[in-house]
Amino acid sequence: MRVKLRVIDMDEASPFMRDWALKWLRGSIESYIRGNTPINMVKGRIKKAMKSYSISIDEIEALINSISHDPLINVPGELLSERVKPLIAFIREIKG
Questions:
Q1: DSSP string spanning the chain?
Q2: Which of 6, 10, 22, 32 is surrounded by the most beta carbons within 10 Å?
């Protein structure tokens, strides 16, 4: 009996992996905003998501924007905007 093998292109992440990576990033960014995760770790995760899971910079920017307007994030408005600024600057730096 012959078995057909499928070659997986590792440059393209599966929809499941992309969805997982977006949730991973969202949790990491929320944790950073709450003061539980260092910004350098979040920056590294953003780079990893882009490289390994085909997440675009526009998707990450939209995710940050979504989090910054999420009423369920229990962080005072001033602290929230202060924490989001370095992330936005990092995204702009990546965009060039």
A1: -----PPP-TTS--HHHHHHHHHHHHHHHHHHHHTSS-HHHHHHHHHHHHHHH---HHHHHHHHHHHHT-TTS-S-HHHHHHHHHHHHHHHHHHH-
A2: 32
